[in-house]
Amino acid sequence: MEKIFKDYLFAKHILVSEKGEDANAFETLFAIANMFNIRIKQGQALAEREMIEYISSMVGKDVPEPFYKGFPESVKKLSADELIFDQLVHYTVTYGFGNFSEAGHSLMEEQFERTAFKENADIKDCIILSVKDAEEVLKSAVNDMFLSTRPLNPSQYDMLSAYIANYGYRPDKCASKNLAIRLLAEKRDVYYVRFLTLSDVTKLVEEINYRFYQNTNVKKLNLKNQDRKLIINVLDMIFAGYEEDTDTTRQYQQVRNCFERKAVWSGLLHHIHYKPKNDNGAEFVKLMRGDGNFSIYSAFEKAMKLGLTGDAADILKEGKGSGAVLRNLDYIISRCPDEESVKKVLESISTENVMILIQLLIKYSAALRSKTLRTFTFTKYEKLKVHPETKEESARRKTFLSKAVSDMLKGFIGKELEKVLKNRLGKVYIDENMKNYALPVQETASSGGFGVLAKGTRLHIDAFKKLRAFTYWEKVDDIDLSCFGLTDDGKRIEFSWRTMAGQQSDAITYSGDQTSGFKGGSEYFDIKLESFKKKYPDVKYVVFCNNVFSRLRFCDCFCKAGYMLRDIEGSGQIFEPKSIASSYIINSDSTFAYLFGIDLEKNDFIWLNMNKDSYAPVAGESELTFLVDYFFVTDVINVKSFFEMMASEIVSDPTQADVVVSDTVNESEIPKGCRLIHSYDFEKMTALMG
């Protein structure tokens, strides 16, 4: 089995046996447990020696040493002057003399003697499957990906693309237009045209423009002949389909949707020299080149300007569905003259789109925390775009929702969601701790890998543990791990290579700013939560970030990030695989990533895992306050409450369930035909939200 499939499955806690039963299985199981604290709960007889090397490569193999070899204890003994001197000498040698032949180390710290690792580390459960069974898991995951309306993150898409190439897979359904468009653009397989409508063609052009030519301006095209031929073929297929389609109303709505990008269409048709092959195509070309504009949004805006909010909502609903009304709800509601008008708009909405309802429920719950200035975020091309609202923009803003209205909207959306989800599943068993896990609502800009969970997921940190954040890299000179403390009033304290010389303490310890050559470098932070809270009492949250100082993109080098939970009185190596909670590759087309956070009040680790659309070489200027919204996601909706809404009955015995939602139960412990869903089974959850 190819490595891309093995890596994907390992993130699901699955190892793949290619040999079958092994005579040395017991020794392998012992080694895996001893080296990595991994317990094999199923398929023990299939354990093979190659798995030891494989696991080592996934959680951390030959990890470069940090700048301070005695991290963290020896670092605490150094004065601020010694720390600065160390760094100045280091920078002079590496950058000034260009010496990247080996990783530089401290000149000031004393020799530090290590003791054997004797810390308590959490056990991680995995299973081993044969290749045949593993292929069934992959097939099921691919099916679920096609049933989800959400765009995929890079690791999901790469696996799905490889699966299609290796197994000749073609889906019967594809709920995500984004996915169908990307597959059509990259594989040039017109099979995926069946999942698209006419207005999706300009999105296909955008996809080709970006993926192959790194151009984000669809109005400035310089496509190759093979691209033009593909687009012409797609248009011809769509217009040919119109001749067989008796639903003229649907055709009319599809054409109306194209008026929203009429200028783009006009330029595209000219660029590809499109010559229609039937009357449907000829009529469409004439409309796109004419003077009229019959777009649904144009009619919607006319009604809004006249103050006819109810009519405007009906226009959107009829032309684009209830989902479009929900996406424009702030705008419509803010223009309603009275409460009766608000209720009229809400009463006209009915949708089966679970994903939109969940996103709006989270949005209006965040709005109840009433921030003066908003931060707008959205994802495109697997990167998060962030725009903090300026005071000038806020002053010009006309869309204001009071707390009372936001509260009403939250209640309405919540009831709609419960109505749509009710009795979707049969008997369901749910682990109590699933209330701490977030739903994978928006993971497009996330990295995938071992230990990765949905953003907003909370994991409690024991009082006797410290959190060790890490990053390490190859094929690039310098990547920086940084940490920021956030207060309730939005102020922040920076802990990074620029500030840590004067901030090293028992509360927070930094390994030094490592610079390196091709062989790689590493950086670490240790935080003792109780000590940190005493030293920085105003700080409520902590956020970790990664950025490529060398100005390369993450996808141009090799970078891993993650965290360990270590005993307060640590021992052993700095990088200890037994204590790894997560280790994942950052491989985005950017230089900046938000990693994870800490809620200091509750001692909770919180997943963020977002690749930002940024090429900034330092972390200090990045917007962070909007991230606090993700800290409250599980208070609004979580894995437990989501499955409770769908269950016809909650049962206390997994053997009596039709669906089991648990990280502790495995397949061998439940009846045949029972569906098992783990906290990291994003595809299964998003398929249910489709």
Distance between the termini: 30 Å
Structural class of the secondary structure composition? alpha+beta
Radius of gyration: 27 Å
Instruction: Write down the CATH topology of the domain at 73-117 and 440-636.
Output: Lipoxygenase-1
Summed up, the helix count is 25
Shape designation: globular
Describe what you observe in this structure.
This protein has 690 residues and is of the alpha+beta class. Helices cover 39% and strands 18% of the residues. Helix 6 runs parallel beside helix 25 and helix 15 runs parallel beside helix 18. The longest helix is centred in the middle third of the chain and has 20 residues. The two termini are 30 Å apart. The model has no long low-confidence stretch (mean pLDDT 91).
Task: Give the gist of this structure.
This protein has 690 residues and is an alpha+beta fold.
